[in-house]
Structure formats: structure tokens, C-alpha cells
Amino acid sequence: MNRWLSVASLVVLASCKGSPRWSGNKIATELQIAGFNIGIPNGWRSLAEVNASGDLARYRPGPESVGMMPEVDRDGVMTPTVMITASPRSALPAWTTCAQAVENARAHYSPPISDVRDGGSACTWHVALGRVAGTVGVRFAGDREVTVQCLIDASGDREGQRVCDDVVRTLQMP
């Protein structure tokens, strides 16, 4: 959850023009993190393939994160982004219930939270950040906390939402 603002900034900046966004041809077909393999759909690319010298280079995922976004911007729709992070549980605010995880998010980031879905050791919720709508999910996977953040255009984006739903399902979140 500590990357919320960075990822939100990435979505907004994704339509910036300048140097090429991607370095070379698409190579990655899946994201691997915390024992999960997440397929990258056609038309989407791994954020690890972002051009290292381009205008989005600072948003390349760190060693504990993976992510993806559409390869090409779509007219009139803000570029959706999916970021998954697997952090050591000891490095994060403690939570044992979904309600605690949601309260931690409210206390640290203050977004309007709705549609909380509790799955025991995993939960998801929706947030609204102006032009950005998001789905956030957290779960435990061994000694890691896996967090997913899907950000899409608040006016709606069926493709972005479908990809997010597939990722949440793959991560076994409600």
C-alpha cells in the first residue's frame, strides 16, 4: 500500500509523450511473485520492460514488485496499471483481519474506501481518487504480504477491470 501515490502518478503520467515507453519487443508473458504466476494478457506489457531512460523509468518496479499496463494508450481512457508487491510481513503495519487492513489503509492514506470483501487471510476493497478508481487487495503468502493495486479510469474501463479481476482471482483474493 505504500506505493499508492507512486502508482497513481504512473497512471496519470502514462499518457505523457517523449522517449519511447518500452525497451524493445515484448518479452514477458507472465509476472512471477511470491509463488504466483500471473499471465500478461495480449496488448499488455510488464513494467520491467519500461524503457530505462524514458519518461516513466522511475516507475519501474523494485525488487519486491511486478506490474503491467497496456502497451498502447487508448484514446479517451486513462491508462490502467496493475502493481503487485510482496513485502516481508515484519516490515508492514500488523493486521490479522480484513477490518484491520482497511483501517491501516484509511489511517495511512485516507482514500474513500468501499466494497470491502473479506476472505479471512485476504481481502479487497475499492478506492476513489478523483479521476482514478482502484481495487486494492492484500493477503498473506507465507512470510510475505502480497498487495495488489489496480488503477483504472474512474469513468470506467472494462478491459482494465477485467485484467484486474483476473489478477485478484489468480492471487486468491475475494
Low-confidence stretches: 1-7, 9-18
Kindly identify the CATH topology: Protein Transport Mog1p, Chain A
How many beta-strand runs?
A: 9
Beta fraction: 25-35%
The number of domains is 1
CATH architecture: 3-Layer(aba) Sandwich
Query: How helical, in percent, are the residues?
Result: 10-25%
Rounded to an integer, what's the Rg over CA atoms? 15 Å
Sheet/helix structural class? alpha+beta
What is the succession of H and E elements? HEEEEEHEEEEH
**CA-CA gap between termini:** 17 Å
Instruction: Output the number of helix runs.
Output: 3
Average of per-residue pLDDT values: 86
The main sheet comes to: 7 strands, antiparallel
The outline comes out as globular
Q: Order the strands across the largest sheet as they lie in space.
A: 3-4-5-9-8-7-6
CATH top-level class: Alpha Beta
